[in-house]
Give the backbone structure.
Amino acid sequence: MFMWKTNTNTTIRLLRIGITNCYFIVKKDITVLIDSGQKCKAEKLKSNLSQLLGYKNLDYVILTHTHYDHTENALMLKQLYSSKILVHKNEAEFLENGFTKLPKGTNIITNIISAAGNRFASKIGKYDAVKPDIKVTENYKLDNTDGIEIIHTPGHTSGSISVIVDNEIALVGDTLFGIFSKSILPPFADDKVKLYESWNKLIKTPCRIFLPAHGKTIRREVLEKNLN
Ligand SMILES: [Zn+2]
Ligand SMILES: [Zn+2]
């Protein structure tokens, strides 16, 4: 299991739940899971978490956005741990209805896939509906500390958020993509202009590494290069 540690001893562990990287954070007494992964891997998620949590409870589940591959286990986690579910207010209604449509493609091919998916396979966007407990807007500090800050980074979706841990590491959901070697542009995004604005927002943080929900760690230099 990959692990990162900040200067103030916050730990971040990578849990691969299907196609999605979920991240488990322990900050002092607070436990947080970023994104919940795919339902077909729910058992893996449960066993990983019970091992990591020990006697602790899972306090928060932060959803970077509401695409199915990030939300499919949110209801299960809420039922199992009474975790508080946090989402951006722009996508709260999607979560309550258990459906978020696919975003537009960022190139010709993914645009065709997106249009076809929304038209013929709308089931892809469905997941177990769950009521969020915390709806955030621009900036939000979890438990009122500077340790875990949430910033609004729209573009991939209108309610995409990133989580800044101890001003060192950012968990960025699908705002940056770590799958391809040449580009960090996600293959799908509702608003490309907003997406680039969000990249600028991320580069203004002092973070040195950016952990995406798909693919490998993105270093600050790589984000800088892609911005140019
Ligand atoms: Zn997504
Ligand atoms: Zn995703």
Residues 3-227 form a domain with the Metallo-beta-lactamase; Chain A fold (CATH 3.60.15.10).
